[in-house]
Amino acid sequence: xxPDLDLVEQCKSGDQNAFRALVERHQQQVRGTVIGMIGAxxxxxxxxxxxFIRFYRSLEDFRGDSKLGTYxxxxxxxLSLNELKRxxxxxxxxxxxxxxxxxxxxxxxxxxxxxxxxxxxxxxALQRLEPxxxxxxxxxxxxxxxxxxTAEILKLPQGTIASRLARGQKKLKExxxxxx
Amino acid sequence: xxxxxxxxxxxxxxxxxxxxxNLLDKALAESTALQxxxxxxxxxxxxIENLEIPANPNFTDKVMAGLESSSxxxxxxxxxxxxxxxPRVAAACILFIAxxxxxxxxxxxxxxxxxxxxxxxxxxxxxxxxxxDY
Lengths: 180, 134
Known about the structure:
The complex is a heterodimer of chains A (180) and B (134). Chain A is mostly helical and 180 residues long. Chain A has nine helices and no strands. By secondary structure, chain B is mainly α. Chain B is built from six helices and no strands. Chain B has helices at residues 2-11, 18-30, 32-49, 59-74, 77-108, 113-117. The A-B interface holds A 16, 19-20, 23-24, 27-28, 31-32, 35-36, 40, 45, 48-50, 52-53, 56-57, 118-119, 122-123, 126, 137, 140-142, 144, 147, 162, 165-166, 169-170, 172-173, 176 and B 6, 9-10, 12-14, 40-41, 44-45, 47-49, 51-54, 56, 59-60, 62-64, 66-67, 70.
């Protein structure tokens, strides 16, 4: 299995199979980041695809200073935040929550929710977080980056990341407690 | 308790100084409420960390197809740019003409055709005479 840098060099020479291999290798992480930020919907799939297309268009800009996964994650976060701003402008998030609020009333609170319910509950709770908090939660907990790596990806001080992580977790706990 | 909770949350992602760690350990040992808080936080984090990302077997094919269609679109970019600009240019021209007509109207208190085409400013001596041979 060729390392990422070698595949990138092959992509730069026009080898589409090399690019396909890179997409296969990194798609789950990229999709995970975008789905964590936007939700599991068609927009997230479109944004995730766009991450790789943008990367391909700017192949020459990638010099290997950071890991390819980190580079792609940075693009994924930026495009996700753009998409969220676009949705906010169309007031779509407000309609989304109104439409989906009732999906979330677990009738029997004494019983454990099914796994699918739990997944949807977590997904919805994440979507209710402000994007600033959501991005650090996604990077730290879904993508598994350290605080330092998260700070590098978001180009923010580590102190800011630590603070947002703490506040994000508190808010998430409050939101999840309303579902249970 | 609030300080202890803040310290607890911070400790889950960051290293505490030895003093801070001692304070946290002591608070946890003395408070069942704080222990319960820690358990809830760890459970919540586990839920997020284990969030399932549904598989999309067609993803790579769609990316490759998207690349191909975006390279086809490159040739049409110039045309698309002009078409995209055209409504704005047209709107700017209409606005300019409207402003010009307004200026003439307010200065002449009328919009006579002669003023619009500039005949009013033409002197008879400047006119070109053509002899018609009947």
